[in-house]
Amino acid sequence: MKHSWLLVAVGCVGCSGAARSDSHPAAAAPRAAPLAGAVAGRSQPLLDQLDRARFDGPLQGLDGELDAAGVTRSCDREEFDTAPNAPWFDGAWRDELLAGESPERRATGESAHEEGLRFLRLEPRDEGLHRFFAAPAAASLVVRARLRAPPGAGGAALFVLPHGCAAPEGADLAVALRARSEEAIDAAQAVLMEPRLGGEWVDVSLTLAPRPGRRSVSVSLIPSEEGLDCDFIELREVAFPAAVAAASRPTFDAGRDPRRRTLELAQSTVDALLLPNGTDATFAVALPPEPADLVYACGALAALSGPELRFEITLDGVPIALDTVRAAPLRAGQPLRLHRADLAGGAGRTAQLKISTRGAPDAVGFVVSPRIVARERAVPAADAVPAFNLVVLSIDTLRADALGCYGTAAANTPQLDALAARGARFERVWSPSSYTLPTHASLFSGQHPYVHGLLDLGDRLDPQRTLMLAQRLRAEGYATAAFTGGGFVAPSYGFGAGFDLYSVDDPMGRTQLRRDRPRPAPSLRAVDQPPLEPALDWLDHHAGAPFFLFLHTFFVHNYTPAPAWLQRFDDPSQVVAGDDPIALRAALLRGDAAALRRLRALYAATVAQVDAELVGAVLRKLAALHLLDRTLVCVVADHGEEFGEHGQTGHGHALYVESTRVPWLLAGPNVEPGLRMEDVELADVAPTLAARLSLTGDPRVLARDVFAPASDDPSPPLLVLGKPDAPTRQAALHLGAWKLMSRQFDGGEPQLALFELDRDFAEKEDLSGVQPARRTGLARRLAAEIAALREAAQRLPSQESRSGGALSEEERAALRELGYLDD
User: Fold this and answer.
1) If you ran DSSP here, which 8-state letter would residue 118 be given?
2) How many helices (H) and strands (E) does the chain have?
3) Measured distance CA(67)–CA(763) in Å, rounded
4) What pLDDT does 105 receive?
5) What is the DSSP string of 67-114?
6) pLDDT given for residue 154 in this prediction
7) 730/331: higher pLDDT
8) Is the Cα torsion angle 489, 493, 496, 497 positive or negative in sign?
9) Helix 533-542 crosses helix 617-624 at what angle (to 10 degrees)?
């Protein structure tokens, strides 16, 4: 059977209540040995052994030294000993271009000197300094500059923008610039580097990978609020392997060895070992006593497509695998496939495992998360308990009342209902927000959004402040993989931390909210390959070792069921408003009862389809692998969905029950069958799962294990939309039977609403006017809880700000497809 993999390399290589903790052990959970003793031989992640591996061959800059002989050569350099010469022009060019005028070369800035050093000085009033450089598409380049800004000055930046035109000169400049639309110019700003400047000279650099269609780059110096000094700017061409090393610095979860990189392939990421042509990596491995395999995937990168690279793997000098792959540019498609190399012949001894690359001279091979996995389960020692597996399924936009196990008789969710029957069902689970980004961060970190800070699309997780569940599990030796729908759970936000493999090709298939756009061509996988197949393949390859598999789908979010599923709830031929979700929502808000009926039918059909085709398929695969008794299966949602209950549709607008109450089902080891629990928070999922798996606690995990004894004064669930200091923000507090909502728009006074949920779960009757004392008391408690969370965030370690990152065009396209960004 051939095993295909989901990933395609089409991106570039980059690289008070707040004091709760999950540090207590599970009350009745037997401790799972973290791959110690008899369990240790069943799985060995080779990337964790790089400090003991031996490397031979030309690393060509992979050790981080770009100045080594033969690694780079200078293409152009401006020393600024005098005022800028003719090729430079000032920052008014964009305004002139958009106004239909011809940009003029006006090189602002003055030559300055101190202590014998001559440099360029840009004053705050200057609009920047810009120049075009030739940049062939196949070239790997590094732009270097020595800059200085006054202490405390903000806004100084070095921009490098790719262009499809040749570096223009003279009269051609206006023509070349005018040919670019305003949208194209803005999109190019995704490549940004803002150096940290503070009164001292700082050497900065930005590496550019080969880019199809590129013929030039424009380099821009932008002064800070207090000005900017520049000693020199240089453009150098870099040997391709060195460019890969420099451009692929991990965005998270950095490995200690420069050859280990978190490669960004499209919006997906893989944990990989870099091996340029002609290099070898040798590992001393202790083979398990039972038959075992080396599981891996391999690929190759090159400046131009076409050259081949051969991977050879030997065990004590005996070849066990030979793969030939065709190298491709960083942005070209590159399908990967999981491989198995048989290690059975070396069972029970220490052996030398060697991986070699030979072929195209200017190519870099990469091996994805190589791991030794036993085919059969080792018999544990009397005092050892094998580690349990974990599968988390996040069904985006799933309301709790859409499932039969939550009391909805019309639902068609037999798989989820059966899972609830053999495990725990949490009755009222409160999501901390009503859209995907902050809620998933809370789900896997055990932190409130006010702590992890992932509140809008410009934010990124702080890897020091926030520890993700996958990181904790991989540190215990778990194989980790994620197959997601991308968008607001793209790895660039930090969700890829701890995952060997993180894919953004939705396991329920490519989903699209807006039906007026053509669906993407099925180029990301074989046409006949079911979308879920790569995840099931991954399970096949890792069944012999503890694993964590995360599956996420936008299928319910997008209201696009197959007709066979829709006919269980409505007549597929009776189309309403084109069955376009946006048109149906607009009609619903106009009072169209048929639109509401159709929208609910489409929604229910997608839920039923996910129940059968995703949940059912995963459970059947676990049963076929005889893993159900050793696997925790957790099903959650990030938020619900509004159907006009409070005058709105969709989600991300408000914090009412319909968009913040979500399902949470948990079954498997250390979970009592038939258990029912009431009020919990989505952030409690991570510490609860960690306790079931007997992970050591961490002070950064502030939520609680819901099965542990409750504290005397537990923090009430707090919900939030928007930044805490933004003019427009919403917050809500659940305290017992009561819920207070605070909404502040455009800097106005907060609007308070009070609901008694035990009596009015639909939140129809605002009691704030008849219960002023309770309203005031809860408002004070809400303010105190927010202050406590912000204080907790300040106490945690932190690196530099992770906010304000630019979205790539691929990320923006994904969010537009999901309806989060307008055209």
Assistant:
1) E
2) 17, 37
3) 65
4) 55
5) TSTTTEEEEEEE--SSS--TT-EETTHHHHHHTTPPP------EEEEE
6) 65
7) 730
8) negative
9) 20
CA distance 130 to 125: 15
- Whole-number Å distance between alpha carbons of 543 and 582: 42
DSSP H or E stretch at residue 686: helix 685-692
Structure confidence by residue, pLDDT tens digits, 275-303: 999 999 999 998 888 888 999 999 998 87
pTM of the predicted model as reported, rounded to 2 decimal places? 0.82
Identity of the amino acid at 75: C
SS3 category, 744: strand
Query: Is 112 or 716 the better-scoring residue by pLDDT?
Result: 716
Q: Which residue is associated with the tokens 């700003």?
A: 189
Of all residues in the chain, what percent carry a pLDDT higher than 90?
A: 46
Angle at 521 (CA atoms; ends 818, 162), nearest 5 degrees? 75
pLDDT band at 124 (very low <50, low <70, confident <90, very high): confident
Q: Which of 430, 347, 475 is nearest to 664 (CA)?
A: 430
Give the pairing of strands 661-662 and 729-735.
unpaired
Tokens 């069904």 sit on residue: 395
Query: Is 388 in contact with 546 (CB distance < 8 Å)?
Result: yes
Average pLDDT over residues 551-580: 91
First-residue to last-residue Cα distance in the chain? 43
The mean pLDDT of the chain is 81
Helix, strand, coil % over all residues of the chain, rounded to 5 = 25, 30, 50
DSSP of 260-305, one letter per residue? EEEEEETTEEEEEEEEETT-EEEEEEE--SS-EEEEEEEEEEESSS
Task: Please write the tens of the pLDDT for every residue from 719-753.
Answer: 999 888 788 899 999 999 999 999 998 878 899 99
Burial class (CB in 10 A: 0-12, 13-18, 19+), 712: exposed
Single out the residue of 46, 120, 134, 62 nearest to residue 90, CA to CA. Answer: 120
For the chain, the maximum distance between any two Cα atoms, rounded to a whole number of angstroms, is 83
The secondary structure of residue 493, as a DSSP letter, is G
pLDDT higher than 70, residue 188? no
| Beta partners for residue 236, in sequence order | 74, 142
What six digits make up the tokens of 731?
A: 């917050």
Question: For the CA atoms of 304, 310, 311, 317, what is the dihedral angle to 10 degrees?
Answer: -150
pLDDT at 403 > cutoff 90: yes
Q: How far is CA 229 from CA 84, 148, 153, 195, 491, in A?
A: 13, 5, 12, 13, 36
Q: Residue 525 and residue 504: Cα distance in Å, rounded?
A: 12
* Residue closest to 349 by CA, chosen among 292, 285, 291, 281: 285
Q: What is the Cα gyration radius of the chain?
A: 28
Is the pLDDT score of 337 beyond 90?
A: no
User: And the tokens for 75?
Assistant: 């293409």
The tokens describing 16, both together, are 């008070």
Tokens describing residue 281? 């990596």
Taking alpha carbons only, the member of 626, 706, 627 closest to residue 424 is: 706
Output DSSP code: residue 398. -
Q: DSSP string of 759-812? A: T-TT-----TTT-HHHHHHHHHHHHHHHHHHHHHHHHS---S----PPPPHHHH
Annotate 220-234 with DSSP letters as a single string.
EEE-BTTBEEEEEEE
Strands 729-735 and 738-744, sheet pairing: antiparallel
pLDDT at 769: 94
> What is the rounded CA–CA span in Å between residue 586 and residue 128?
46
Q: Identify the residue whose tokens are 């997780």.
A: 461
Return the amino acid letter for 327. Answer: A
Per-residue pLDDT, averaged over 163-184, amounts to 58
Q: How far, rounded to the nearest angstrom, does the alpha carbon of residue 555 sit from its chain's CA centroid?
A: 18
Q: Which of 253, 698, 686 is nearest to 497 (CA)?
A: 253
Residue 223 burial (C-beta neighbours within 10 Å; 0-12, 13-18, 19+): buried
Query: Rounded to whole angstroms, how far apart are CA atoms 731 and 654?
Result: 9
